[in-house]
Design brief:
Elements (H helix, E strand, L loop, with lengths): L8 H4 L4 E3 L4 H8 L7 E7 L11 H11 L6 E6 L5 E5 L2 H8 L3 E2 L2 E7 L5 E10 L4 H12 L3 E6 L9 E9 L6 E4 L2 E4 L1 E2 L58 H16 L3 H11 L3 H6 L3 H68 L2 H10 L5 H23 L7 H17 L2
Antiparallel strand pairs: 1-8, 2-4, 2-6, 3-4, 5-6, 7-9, 7-12, 8-9, 10-11
Helix pairs in contact: 2-4, 6-7, 9-11, 11-12
Protein name: Pre-C2HC domain-containing protein
Length: about 425
């Protein structure tokens, strides 16, 4: 029996690279136990040279409902410029069902996950070069409750160094400040990608393998054959330096975008879109929340501004109504005062007429005829009281605005006339 261990992926790659043997579906399910913002599944044509047919979204939705029973957990879908379809969900089971698709509306497809949304990358230093990466992965997973996806050792070919840094990719968007390896608390460092340029057109927006532009000179930014004779000119910022200069404003801006991408666990295109949209400074980009939270904060601020505007308009309307009400109340009070004054004047006339009538000669004869105990002034006062009531009824029916004041004034007349005539 040979004691030689079977070759693993790590040993085959000369102990430079290691990748987990778990399938993407298993890793996505394990990601459900970690912290992340969202899971993005990309569906593309199995033939890399062809795009997916741009179908009606209604038909796409009907198809997804048939093949994905957890389709209710899909909260976004969009067609990319590369001819692919991107589905966004927060449910790992829904993502696994999407990853398991082999056909999409009669088209053979391949699926993949945007790992940047559910993974973190960090560097550890001073790892012995003779330590197999597979053993290192097992040590990290056992003592730190981490799921290692892949590892890459930074070691130049034919290097004689005994130690080297290792880049580690793990599931989850949060990582500690240190991890435990071999009884050692190893400090870790967040890994930030360096800006990469296309070697044909020297753009930061795409890789050389998909570039369809012609080759240009990185010194002068022009197309020519042979040694460059022109002055240096950057093709990206038009400045007086070569295109590969690390002091180029375009290079510095790309570094900020990549740092924003790594800090917020989003794709490079999404980080570039947010950067150009907000045009933040470096410190603001680093401190800014993830893109999804960024959108939520924007909506919240707009809603609060709208609510404040509505409140101000409502308060202004209430103030206007109160002013009009006070004005109408003043007019009403003035009309009521004039009406009461008119009523009192007419009442005074009625009282005067009643007094004149009670002192007339026929009344004296009646008194002499029936004796001094009889008081005809009370009966006559009642008649005048009725006359006053009829007068007031006519007056108030002419002024309909004050009809409801009739009963109180009727009681007022009774209180005025009855004591007066009873004392006669």
């Amino acid at each position: 029996m040979s004691n030689v261990k079977p070759q693993t992926l790590g040993t085959v790659m000369n102990n430079i690279y290691f990748k987990s043997r778990k399938t993407p579906n298993e890793l996505v399910l394990r990601a459900g136990q970690k912290q992340y913002n969202e899971i993005n599944v990309i569906i593309s044509n199995v033939d890399k040279n062809k795009k997916l047919p741009h179908s009606n979204p209604f038909l796409v939705q009907a198809f997804i409902k048939q093949v994905v029973n957890r389709h209710d957990n899909i909260y976004n879908m969009k067609f990319t410029r590369q001819g692919k379809i991107l589905f966004t969900t927060k449910d790992p089971l829904c993502a696994v069902q999407l990853l398991s698709l082999t056909k999409f509306m009669e088209t053979d497809i391949s699926t993949d996950v945007i790992w940047e949304n559910i993974c973190s990358r960090f560097l550890i230093f001073d790892i012995p070069v003779n330590t197999p990466l597979e053993e290192l992965a097992e040590e990290i997973q056992e003592k730190n409750d981490m799921d290692v996806i892949e590892m890459r050792r930074f070691l130049k070919q034919n290097s004689v160094k005994d130690m080297s840094p290792v880049l580690i990719t793990v599931l989850g968007t949060t990582i500690p400040d240190e991890i435990r390896i071999w009884f050692i608390n190893q400090k870790i460092q967040h890994f930030i990608d360096s800006p990469r340029q296309c070697t044909k057109c020297y753009s930061f927006a795409h890789a050389s393998r998909i570039c369809d532009r012609t080759n240009v000179c990185f010194l002068c930014g022009e197309e020519h054959v042979g040694p460059c004779q022109g002055p240096e000119k950057c093709i990206n910022c038009k400045g007086p330096h070569n295109t590969k200069s690390t002091s180029c404003p375009a290079y510095i801006k790309e570094g900020k975008i990549l740092k924003f991408k790594c800090r917020n666990h989003i794709t490079t295109s999404e980080a570039r879109r947010v950067y150009h949209l907000q045009n933040m400074k470096y410190s603001e980009v680093v401190k800014s929340p993830p893109a999804s939270a960024e959108l939520q904060n924007t909506i919240t601020l707009k809603f609060e501004a709208l609510l404040q505007s509505v409140n101000e308009k409502f308060e202004s309307l209430i103030q206007s109504v109160n002013e009009k009400f006070e004005k109408q109340t003043a007019i009403f009070a003035e009309m009521l005062h004039k009406t009461i004054e008119s009523i009192m004047q007419n009442m005074y006339k009625i009282i005067v007429q009643s007094l004149e009538t009670t002192t007339s000669p026929p009344e004296k004869e009646t008194t002499e005829k029936f004796g001094s105990q009889y008081k005809p002034s009370y009966a006559m006062g009642c008649r005048w009281q009725e006359r006053a009531r009829y007068y007031l009824v006519g007056l108030f029916f002419q002024s309909k605005s004050f009809v409801f004041y009739f009963a109180p004034f009727q009681r007022l007349l009774s209180n005025v006339f009855n004591p007066f005539f009873l004392t006669q």
